[in-house]
Amino acid sequence: NAGVTQTPKFRVLKTGQSMTLLCAQDMNHEYMYWYRQDPGMGLRLIHYSVGEGTTAKGEVPDGYNVSRLKKQNFLLGLESAAPSQTSVYFCASSWQQGSYEQYFGPGTRLTVT
Amino acid sequence: AQKVTQAQTEISVVEKEDVTLDCVYETRDTTYYLFWYKQPPSGELVFLIRRNSFDEQNEISGRYSWNFQKSTSSFNFTITASQVVDSAVYFCALSELHRDDKIIFGKGTRLHILP
C-alpha cells in the first residue's frame, strides 16, 4: 500500500516551459487536492477534485490546470511556468468530505528560473 | 470568514520541557472540524488528530494532548517531555461542513527541540 505518491520529486524549469505533476493514490479516495507550500505561507489550496471527472478551483488557481480522468490520479499542469511558481507542491487525498483527514504525498520541489 | 491563526511562528525549548502550540480559529459554521498535522524535516505531512465541533473533550495520546475550547475558539496542542524527534513544523487546520469541503491551514509553528 503506497498511499499517495508524487512524481517527480524535484524539477527545475525555465520560465515559459510547461510540465505536469502526477499524483496517484491507492486508497480508493474520492477527494484529491493540490497544495503549494511557500515559506511563511503555510499550505494553500490550488485545485481540488471531489470525484473522477470533476475539478474545482481552490485559493490560488491562476497559472495551473488540473485533470482527474481516473479516480486514482490527479494531474497538475503548468502551461507556462513563472518564477512565482517556485514552490513545494503537495498532493493529498481523503475518503470523502473535508471533515475527513487528508493523506499527503511526499511533495515535489519545483524551481522556475 | 474561515481562518486559522497560529501566532507562534517559531518556538525553541530544551529537551524534556513541555511545550504548547496555540491555534485560534474563526468560523461561522456550527459544524466544523479541526486538525493538527506534523511536518518533520523530511518534508512529508503527517496527520495527528481530528476533532469535530461537538466534541470538546480533551484528547491525550502518549506525550501529545489537545485542548479544544469553543468558548475561546482555540485548539491548542501540548507536547509533554519533549524529545528531539518532535522537532518539526506543526500545522493547525479547519474545515467547515458547509463550505465546499476544503481544509484551511494555518501558517504553521516551527518547533525546535534542543538537546
Strand segment tally of chain B: 12
Radius of gyration of chain B over all CA atoms, rounded: 14 Å
> What spatial form of chain B do the alpha-carbon principal axes imply?
globular
Strand content of chain B: over 45%
* Helical content of chain A (DSSP H or I, runs of 4+): under 10%
Main β-sheet of chain B, in a few words?
6 strands, mixed
Major sheet of chain A: 7 strands, mixed
Classify the oligomer: heterodimer
User: What is the average per-residue confidence, as pLDDT of chain A, rounded to a whole number?
Assistant: 93
H and E order of chain A? EEEEEEEEEEE
Q: Largest chain-chain contact?
A: A-B, 25 and 24 residues
Number of helices of chain B: 0
By DSSP (H or I, 4+ residues per run), the number of helices of chain A equals 0
Termini separation of chain B comes to: 41 Å
Whole-number mean pLDDT of chain B = 92
Proportion of strand residues of chain A = over 45%
Helix content of chain B: under 10%
Low-confidence stretches of chain B: none
Rough outline of chain A: globular
